[in-house]
Amino acid sequence: MEDNITTVLFDLDGTLVDTYELILTSFRHTFDHYVPGRFTKEDCISFIGPPLTETFASILPEKTEEMVQFYRNFNKQHHDTLIKPFAGVYDTVKTLHERGYKLAIVSTKMKDMVIKGLEATDLHPFFPVIIALDDVKYAKPDPEPIFKALELLRSDVQEAVMVGDSNHDILAAKNAGTRSVGVSWSIKGKDYLQRFSPDYMINHMGDLLKIVGVEANAKNDQV
């Protein structure tokens, strides 16, 4: 347990909200259009985490922006039917909010889609600060998004923790000097995340309450 944590930064996709099916379907739809037969659904797992421009530039540099837009159009169209919050997320975030913790989203998605995801899962009211891809020059694992969130929350790195499902989240936390929490439900696997040495690994979002010092509510409802 850490008694001095006042601030919790969350990644969105794969951490708070189960968007894996949406993301993988969006990648497959895009790749089937531009490079048919080149990638399987399983291949697309490795593309989760980095910004879309980075992924598509590595495949068809001359079509990067076109592919990004193609992906986003499909993703937005199917968004609300293919996402859901992970177990315990709503109750845990609500508890942190009620206990006065400073909360923010730090994501590599564009802000309009971050807000769309938060609204679809009723989490939007809990996050006064959202740092998305279009808010920064450098995305995670660069520390810029974390620094920007902490500045808006008026928090210091020593009192913050970053929660995420990707190596980009863990490395961003290390680069910024905050503590990090990996989530075992990452599609890349718990063992994969452990390679990047997060300070904590949780098996249920409710476990986060004990880490940040909300002892009385450590056993969250298994939603």
Automatic annotation (TrEMBL):
What transmembrane ranges does the database entry give? none
Q: What class of enzyme is it?
A: hydrolase
Keyword annotations of the record: Hydrolase, Magnesium
CC terms in the record's Gene Ontology section: cytosol
Reaction(s) catalysed (UniProt annotation) = diphosphate + H2O = 2 phosphate + H(+)
> Mind listing the GO molecular function terms for this protein?
inorganic diphosphate phosphatase activity; magnesium ion binding; phosphoglycolate phosphatase activity
Stored InterPro entries? HAD-like_hydrolase_sf, HAD-like_sf, HAD-SF_hydro_IA, HAD-SF_hydro_IIIA, HAD_2, HAD_sf, PGP-like_dom2, Pyrophosphatase_Ppax
One Pfam family hit: HAD_2
Tell me which cofactor or cofactors this protein depends on.
Answer: Mg(2+)
Q: What EC number is given for this enzyme?
A: 3.6.1.1
Residues forming the catalytic site? 11 (nucleophile)
One GO BP annotation here? Answer: DNA repair
Query: Which family does the similarity line name?
Result: Belongs to the HAD-like hydrolase superfamily. PpaX family.
Its annotated function is as follows:
Hydrolyzes pyrophosphate formed during P-Ser-HPr dephosphorylation by HPrK/P. Might play a role in controlling the intracellular pyrophosphate pool.
HAMAP family membership: Pyrophosphat_PpaX
Record protein name field: Pyrophosphatase PpaX
Q: Which gene underlies this protein?
A: ppaX
